[in-house]
Sequence to fold (921 residues):
Amino acid sequence: MNELLLIVTIAGQRVALPAAAVEAVVELDTLIPVPRAAPHVAGLSALRSRVLTVIDCMRSLELGATDCSDGIREAAVVELDGHHYALLVDVVEDVVEAMTDPSPVRAAMGDGWERVSKGMVETETGPLLLIDVAALISGAEARAA
Amino acid sequence: MDDLIADFVAESREMLEALGGEIVAWESNPGDRARLDSIFRFVHTVKGNCGFFEFPRLEALSHAAEDALADVRAGRRQADGPLVSAVLAIIDRIAEMIAAIDNGEEMPPGDDSALIEALEPGAEGAAAPVAAALAEQGRSAAPRTIRLSVELLDRVMSTVSDMVLARNELARRLRESPTDVPVDGAFERLSSIIAEMRDAITRTRMQRIENLFVALPRMVRDLSAELGKQVLVDIEGGDVELDREMIEMIRDPLTHIIRNAVDHGIELPAERLKAGKREIGMLCVSARQSGNQILIDIQDDGRGIDGNALVAKALDAGVLEKDDAAKLSPREQLALIFEAGLSTAKEVTAISGRGVGMDVVRSNVERIGGIVEVDSVPGEGTRMTLRVPLTLTIIPALTVSIGSQHFAIPRSAIVEIVRANGESVTLDSLGGAGVATIRGKRVPEVALADVLGLDSGVPDEERNLVVLRPAGGDVYALAVDRIHDHEELVVKPAAPAVMATGLYAGTTLADDGSPILLFDPAGLAEVGGVKLEAQESAARVAQGPSAAAEKSVAVLLFRGLDGARRALRLAIVDRIEEVPVSAIKPGAGQLRVQLGEAILPLAGVNGELGEDKVRVFRLNDGAHEIGYAFSDVIDLSTIDHDVILADNPAEVSGVTLIAGEPAELVDAHWLFANHLGVAARSSADQPLCRLPSGDPWMQHMLRPIVEAVGYRVVGDDYEGEADLVIAAQGDRSAASAARKIVLRSDPEAAGKKDDSIYRYDRAGLLMALKSAGGNR
Fold:
């Protein structure tokens, strides 16, 4: 019930990530591309002595690509199955408390959003879409496979 | 109390593990007192501990076993098959109970009395077939040890890894800024301590592979008993050390292969006798270290694998197309057993052939960077080889780059590194695919930039070729832009999305903390389209041209000074030199070139020399050298078309098609024969020719001709005997010699008996000179 949520903006949409899953919020400056990897894998970056796999959330949602040309990007670091990922987001806003359990969204969302949705949660700042981090990381191909 | 129980469980477990091999060894040699003692000690310890902890059933079992063994020790009883089986059964039950205690579960149900009764002398029990283990003799006294949790070790390991990275970073900073000598000294010291520590910590994760092997004799014994077969296990190399994680990873594949060998490989005793083999099948399991790989061989002398049956099976199962089937080499046929859904076993038995096939074995082994190979001779046996890396964590690697991005290649896979524009390397394109010829050997070439879809900006010929041999596969060349450094990298697995590309084996951090991707050489080859699976056929393709190359010679294609396309046999070209035009001068009858200290006859000057510099092949026939001037090198190639021979021997012996265009083939023999002249013989070998010193015509006109044929010219004052004397007709003072040529100044011979030669009869003179030299 009182799950903490990290509010981030992806493709201009405010969405919520389960705060428990997020280890850190970092600013990435170096990005080493991974040739031939799925398009939503933006590359690799390092956080201290760990390698982060950087996920371009916009590509994962099939909403175009995040513009990385200006260098520094904000990202939320999450761990999944022992691997560390940095999710590229537009802005990291705040941590809020969830007021309800997630409930299905009955409105029609885009395909990408539908895939990563865990439902809608009510917060003090209004309803937010709760993101399934694993689905975000696996990207569009996983669904097709 | 709980702590004590935990200790009891841990102690018992350790003893149980060690015991598996001992019992079977004891069974094969009941007189072996040392083994008997160690088994006795185990049941005795268990009995003592159980009394203390109140495990009545455990106590009863161990007590009974102890009694029976005590009888054997006291010589009141002989150890026989039934007794060994009964003791084994009791030890198994004890192991089950200990596992239950460990998990805090109820004791496994069941009545132990039957087991205890089986210990009685003459008790009913199937006489178990004897399986013997030639296990290592005399277990040495256990070294002093403490128990550590693996998590702690892993934590230390990763801290050390981070420390190595920090050291690398510091090293880089120190290199960038000038530092004091004391600081460098201190850093060196720190650096070596860290290296030492990393070695030590790596070793803490190492375990003797014996831990894996120790259970095998028992397993084989049980299996063969069940199947009514007789199998002798021979284990070697138990002291090879392997990363603890690795041992766990290969446990299942190894077990599976051994089960297969006993179940499908080794025949029933009757069949073996019929086939003229010993009744008892041999199963050899051996481990050895080779570089940073561990090789585990599992060899049986059973019926082998029938490649044709596999092919038939594969056709049935639809794994293989009929057209492809015919093309398979024997090795490829055998490799089919790694395909999913194939088993040659006629029926599914309880032991193996349950659908968990060799495909699972292979995928398990490949997951840890290893490979499985199979080799089999029908009727004689099968050998399976597991090759696994020593450790997963730190590997030596070479860093290379494409454009601005760095990558790492595991050094273990690297055979050599050559420059694409090196003399012994040519690059060809066959239907768009690259083939590199390195010192006459054809290897598939993959441009890393193309595989990765990166812009390189470096032209093909300026790249470096890294020749790779993926574990067990065939070589191929990887073209990279630049080679950087050799580093020891701490490799971590990459995220699934990265691994899904099939190209990478993991990620690592460079000295400066930026991530580097580590390639999987086999994966690269696969994505690059190089066929490694079909090892043998690849080798055949590779053999084709090289076998042909033995017949058709490797040649160097070049453009002569006159602009003609010519080819010279590569073998005689020593090297290519560039000399100033001024180094080429006519001398002693022909053009000569000065190359360093040597002055060599120069051939090939059939056009303008140019103004500045001339390139010269330095040709070598093994004893002598001559130069051959040319304009530029076109390519290295081989003669694969027929040579149309020239009518007359000359510099060009014939014409052939090379790389689709005609080229003149330079006759090296002719070159040497005609340009070497005098130099062909060292002065000691040269025949001597005495010419009258005072005759100006002889000295100035004749002498060069005589010398050109190969004589050393001496004067009248020469003390020794000359091989040939040339004298003018009528000169009676001429000394005697083995041969004598008399020259006359009159074109017409004086009479029939006059065997003199007219002095301007050049042909006659040369013939006489040559025949005189030849008779020598």
